[in-house]
Design goal:
Layout (H helix, E strand, L loop, with lengths): L6 E5 L2 H14 L2 E6 L8 E3 L2 H10 L4 E4 L2 H8 L12 E4 L5 E6 L5 H12 L2 E2 L4 H6 L10 E3 L5 H9 L4 E2 L4 H4 L1 H4 L11 E5 L10 E6 L2 E7 L5 H14 L7 E7 L6 H10 L3 E4 L1 H5 L10 H7 L5 H9 L4 E8 L3 E7 L15 E6 L10 H9 L2 E5 H8 L7 E5 L4 H13 L3 E6 L8 H10 L10 E5 L4 H9 E2 L5 E5 L7 H13 L3 E5 L8 H13 L5 E6 L7 E6 L12 E5 L5 E5 L2 E5 L17
Parallel strand pairs: 1-2, 1-4, 2-3, 4-5, 6-7, 9-10, 10-11, 12-13, 13-14, 17-20, 17-21, 18-19, 18-20, 22-29, 23-24
Antiparallel strand pairs: 5-6, 8-11, 12-16, 15-16, 24-27, 25-26, 25-27, 28-29
Length: about 600
């Protein structure tokens, strides 16, 4: 089953911080967001309360704010749009006495409020009339169900509150016990009606139609089939059988098609998962196929892809309701299961590999995209030290695969292997994964991968804040003009090549970021680099020396090139060597460095920017 977004328990006072920690521990799937300098211990710190709350809301994060209702309302009000899409927002009084669901009540807000109240001994102040009187949110059916006409939910509930009664099918208790067990006023002569139906018929203000997601759409297609063609094929099959798209639980195919864009596009358009079976699993359905094909068997190892996938997904009691139907480059079949399907537990997903940059090491510099990729992961792979930060962001006990320095190729290979098995993997790097990190190794490994399954995984490179960016930001703006980066490591690049590149950059008057300046076995390279730089730069050239960025013991100094002490440089240090135009000045008790964006060589003053 897909993970819902992690609950953010937000606190802005010391008392609220303590209560937020209790709530997060009780929920087990939450993290504490605390106002910096006020809320005590927190997983994520922020400085602007309203801005932070709105960002969480816009990202779809459920929010439990240990604060006044007014703070939450004023913060998220500018982002309010569609009540059916908004995440839950609940307010918790800082004395722990009351929990009030404010928004997203029918998307888990009421349940979240009641859960928090139960865990901390508070009162859940539920104000939604339908929930209070009938014990059910009619416009928010449980997993496996959809409401065909959500726009009619409000007038339907209004009629109920005025005393109207509800007609329902006799089979309601067996088909939809969640409805039958509610406190709805059922009456065979009721003015309102509830229907449970996978057909495409629509409802009305006096009739709610609930559709169980019992349909499995099986797809087979040629490589590179157009998404529009496959979508039109599936829609025509549903229409011909009088079936509603809202009753579809998932789109299914053979694992050879797990990277086929058309299959994923169809699943996305229906709002359901795409899942895949091995040829052996599909061949097990051969006795139930209505249109077996020896040609298909010779091509992929099973006698039917579309029908086989639909039947495999629907289970042993499922039946074909639409036989294999062809388009120019695709086939479609639909099977119906006796009960709603949890597609996310059927077959296998397409494997995912996110190569994630976590920045310098401070949780505050972790981008929302990187955080989301880590939270989503079922496997974390990386250097042991980097995993310490990432592991705390993932729920459900992810599998952690730690490696030591020097095992970079093994890390990349293991991450790809896990993704090829259908796993959701985050390969964690410090800084930015594309800058002297794991992204290039992953691409190289994929380029040479002998396993076809490796080439079908989804790969994303998630950027992070690089060390050179963090160091520059701490010091001012030394990379405000043309710059480059040079790694002094000779593990993968011959030393003479490193020196040639450094000399060329120095001659061209680039600002130069130096990565991997020394190691335990390699200190003379840095001494040589200083000599090369000294051939092209004045001794007073400003150099930013940044160590332990984003970690305990961080230190950033601006020193002259001629004053660098090589003994204070290590592998945790990054240096930014200024160009001939880089300047320094004293500000706020510290030395600041910057390189003007443009300059007039004759007047010696910056040119006017057109930006």
């Amino acid at each position: 089953m897909e993970l819902s977004p992690r609950v953010a328990v937000v606190a802005i006072t010391p008392e609220g911080g303590a209560l937020a920690r209790r709530i997060a521990a009780a929920l087990g799937d939450a993290e504490v967001h605390g106002l910096r300098g006020r809320a005590g211990d927190a997983d994520v710190r922020f400085t602007e309360t309203s801005q932070h709350l709105r960002a969480l809301f816009e990202d779809g994060r459920p929010i439990a704010g240990v604060c006044a209702v007014g703070i939450l309302v004023r913060s998220v009000a500018p982002a309010l749009q569609d009540k059916r899409a908004e995440p839950p927002v609940v307010a918790v009084s800082d004395d722990g006495a009351f929990v009030v669901p404010l928004l997203g009540g029918h998307r888990g807000g009421v349940e979240l409020a009641r859960r928090i109240a139960s865990e901390i001994g508070a009162t859940a102040a539920v104000t939604t009339a339908g929930d209070r009187r009938f014990g059910i949110a009619l416009d928010a059916p449980p997993a496996g169900w959809t409401l065909a006409n959500p726009e009619d939910g409000k007038p339907f509930v209004a009629s109920l509150l005025r005393g109207a009664r509800v007609r329902a099918p006799a089979r309601l208790a067996s088909e939809a016990p969640w409805l039958a067990e509610s406190r709805l006023p059922f009456d065979d002569a009721g003015e309102l009606a509830i229907r449970v139906d996978a057909a495409s018929a629509s409802g009305a203000p006096d009739t709610l139609v609930y559709r169980p997601r019992r349909l499995a759409v099986g797809i087979g297609c040629e490589r590179g089939a157009a998404g529009d063609e496959i979508a039109a094929l599936a829609r025509s099959c549903l229409d011909a059988a009088g079936l509603a798209p809202g009753a579809v639980a998932g789109v299914f195919s053979i694992d050879l098609k797990s990277d086929e864009p058309a299959v994923h596009a169809l699943a996305g358009s229906l709002g359901v998962p795409a899942r895949f079976f091995s040829a052996a699993a599909l061949e097990a359905e051969a006795p139930r196929l209505r249109n077996p094909s020896d040609l298909v068997f010779r091509a992929v190892g099973c006698h039917g892809v579309a029908e086989g996938a639909a039947l495999a997904a629907a289970g042993p009691e499922g039946e074909l309701v639409v036989e294999k139907t062809r388009s120019q480059r695709g086939t479609c079949a639909i099977a119906c299961a006796p009960a709603p399907l949890d597609a996310s537990s059927i077959g296998s997903p397409r494997g995912e590999l996110a190569v994630v940059g976590i920045g310098p090491g401070d949780a505050g510099t972790l981008t929302p995209e990187a955080r989301a990729a880590i939270e989503r992961a079922g496997h974390l792979v990386g250097y042991r030290r980097y995993l310490d930060l990432a592991a705390g962001l993932v729920r459900g006990g992810p599998a952690v695969h730690p490696y030591e320095l020097g095992e970079e190729r093994a890390r990349a290979a293991r991450a790809i292997e896990l993704a090829a098995e259908g796993g959701r993997v985050a390969l964690v790097c410090s800084g930015d994964p594309g800058i002297y990190a794991m992204a290039s190794l992953v691409m190289e490994a994929l380029d040479r991968a002998p396993n076809p399954a490796s080439r079908r995984i989804e790969v994303r490179v998630v950027p992070g804040v690089s060390a050179l960016q963090a160091a520059a930001a701490r010091a001012g703006a030394p990379i405000g003009h043309d710059f480059c980066a040079v790694s002094l490591s000779d593990l993968l690049t011959p030393r003479e090549v490193v020196e040639e590149r450094l000399a060329a950059a120095a001659r061209a008057d680039f600002v130069i970021a130096l990565y991997n300046p020394v190691s335990a076995a390699r200190r003379e390279t840095f001494d040589r680099a200083l000599w090369i730089l000294g051939e092209h730069r004045r001794a007073e050239t400003p150099v930013v020396v940044a160590r332990n960025l984003g970690r305990t013991g961080e230190r950033v100094d601006v020193v002259p090139l001629g004053g660098i002490d090589p003994e204070r440089i290590d592998m945790l240090t990054v240096l930014i060597v200024g160009s001939s135009r880089t300047r320094t000045f004293a500000h706020g008790g510290a030395e600041r460095a910057y390189t003007p964006r443009g300059y007039d060589l004759h007047a010696g003053v910056p040119e006017r920017s057109t930006a």
